[in-house]
Write a structure and sequence with these properties.
- The strands form two sheets. Strands 2, 3, 4, 5, 6, 7, 8 and 9 form an eight-stranded parallel sheet that branches.
- With about 210 residues, the chain is mostly beta strands.
- The protein has two domains: about 90 residues, Pectate Lyase C-like (3 Solenoid); about 80 residues, Pectate Lyase C-like, CATH 2.160.20.
- It is elongated, with a radius of gyration of 18 Å.
- Helices cover about 5% and strands about 20% of the residues.
- About 5% of the residues have low confidence.
- The protein starts with a strand and ends in an 8-residue tail after the last helix.
- Pfam families: Pentapeptide, Pentapeptide_4.
- This is Pentapeptide repeat-containing protein.
Length: about 210
C-alpha cells in the first residue's frame, strides 16, 4: 500500500523531520582556497570544524581519516574522492563535483549533508539516513538511494535520470520540482510523498502506460 500527495507548490514547511541546519558563518582563518589532496594531507589536523573550502581539488583523494563538522565546500572537485570512514557532520556542498562519491561509506554517527548546484552522478547513498535533506538544483543521474531513509527530503529542481530507488523510505519526500525520476510504488514507501500530476508518470513507467 502507498499514498502520495499532489501539490502545485514544493517548499511548504512540513511537520516531522526537522529542517537541516546549513553552515554559513566562518572565521576568516578557517577559509581555505585552492587546496589539493597534498595540502590537506600535510595539514596537522584531521578534524575540521566550521571551515570553508573554496575552489579546492580533492578529486580521487583519500579522505577517510578526516572529520568535517559544520563545514562548507564551495566550487570544489571531489569527484571519486574516497570517504570510507570519513565523518560528515552537518556539511554543505555548493556547486561541487561529487560524481562517483560513495557517501554510503561515511560514518553514520551524526551524518548530515546538504547539496546545492552539485553534480552527483553515480553517487551512492546506500542505506544512509537523509531525513529532511535538501538537494537543490542537483544532477543525480544514476545516483543510488537503495535502502536510504529520505523521509521529508526535498529534491528541488533536480534531475534524477536512472537514479535508483529500491526499498527506499520516501515518506513525505518532495518531488514536485524534480524531473526524470522513475520510482516503483510497490518497492518503496511513498506515504504522503509529494508529486505534481506530470511527475506521476515517473511512478507508473514500469507498467508501460501511455499518457496522452
Amino acid at each position: 500500500m502507498f499514498s502520495f500527495l499532489l501539490s502545485a507548490t514544493s517548499m511548504k514547511q512540513r511537520r516531522g523531520a526537522q529542517p537541516a541546519r546549513r553552515p554559513s558563518v566562518f572565521a576568516a582563518e578557517n577559509r581555505f582556497e585552492r587546496w589539493d589532496a597534498h595540502t590537506l594531507a600535510a595539514h596537522p589536523e584531521t578534524e575540521f570544524e566550521q571551515c570553508h573550502f573554496v575552489g579546492c581539488d580533492f578529486s580521487g583523494a583519500s579522505l577517510g581519516h578526516f572529520r568535517f563538522t559544520d563545514c562548507l565546500f564551495e566550487r570544489c572537485n571531489l569527484a571519486s574522492a574516497k570517504l570510507s570512514g570519513a565523518g560528515l557532520q552537518n556539511v554543505a556542498f555548493t556547486d561541487c563535483k561529487l560524481s562517483g562519491v560513495q557517501f554510503a561509506a561515511c560514518r553514520d554517527f551524526l551524518f548530515e549533508v546538504h547539496f546545492e548546484g552539485c553534480q552527483l552522478h553515480y553517487a551512492s547513498f546506500f542505506g544512509k539516513k537523509l531525513r529532511a535533506t535538501k538537494f537543490v538544483r542537483c544532477s543525480l543521474t544514476d545516483a543510488d538511494f537503495t535502502s536510504a531513509d529520505l523521509t521529508e527530503a526535498v529534491f528541488q529542481d533536480c534531475t534524477l535520470s536512472n537514479a535508483v530507488f529500491r526499498n527506499t523510505l520516501l515518506t513525505g519526500a518532495d518531488f514536485t520540482t524534480a524531473s526524470q525520476f522513475s520510482i516503483d510504488p510497490e518497492g518503496n514507501t511513498l506515504t504522503k510523498a509529494r508529486f505534481t500530476l506530470p511527475g506521476l508518470l515517473g511512478l507508473v513507467s514500469k507498467y508501460g502506460v501511455i499518457v496522452e
